[in-house]
Amino acid sequence: MEPNADKLRGLCITSLDDEDDDETELPNQPLPASTVTVAAAASGYDDGDEDEEAEVMLGFLEKPKHPGLLLRHLFPSKAGGIPAWLDPVNLPTGNSSCCGFCGEPLHFVLQIYAPIESNAAAFHRTLFMFMCPSMACLHRDQHKQWTRNQGNPRRSVRVFRCQLPRTNVFYSSEPPSRNNSDKPLCAGAALCHWCGTWKGDKICGGCKKSRYCSEKHQALHWRSGHKNDCLQIINSSEASSSVLPAVGKVPARTSWPEYQIAIDDEVDLDSDGCDE
């Protein structure tokens, strides 16, 4: 994060709700099972009856008792670190994973597990938030929203939604026991060995083992030590991957500290027993 990251506190990403009435609206189509879609980070929604009081949930950052509690098959809500993709195969790719201004891969901020009980297709549902760490891009994003640009909007903040039915190819239909015996039903896509966030579509031309989401991350990994590791893998008779980072551990120093998000109901200040 840049030294002037404190300015984030004063940065307001304006909503797109108050666009002109003649604006073309995107169709609100249901998502098929195992789908990842891109949504505007500040998009609004119709809450129906204005007189009906909306239920509010609060999230509190806590250090996890064990890092294993934040793995994808336990359906965590978390902030920082690397994402625990709900659908570990069909990940956002191309421009969806990059800042619309500088073109660099976006950084993972947080994810919230938010299933919808009344929707069988959203038995499992997680929202993922990503942003560019550049303050310059965030300011340009804010300016673009002010200009009401009707073209293809560029964004430095993105939110993805992924949902799955109860019966799917990735997880058991039974709830996790959380006793260290839970395992996903299948492996996910190969991720970038530098950031551990996006799909590793690019392969190191030397060792043919390390994967990357972008040329920049490949260059950063090379300079941080993969230059020597690459030769070690090539010269190894077994071509061992032991020199590559383990799952959930990546060499990038740009990820934010990892926390578990504990979710609780908002306290009704008018109710009895709320002195604390």
From TrEMBL:
Keyword set includes Metal-binding: yes
GO MF term (any one): zinc ion binding
InterPro entries per record: Znf_MYND
Domain of life: Eukaryota
Domain MYND-type: 192-230
Gene3D superfamilies: 6.10.140.2220
Key words, A-Z: Metal-binding, Zinc, Zinc-finger
Name of the protein: MYND-type domain-containing protein
Organism annotation: Aegilops tauschii subsp. strangulata (Goatgrass)
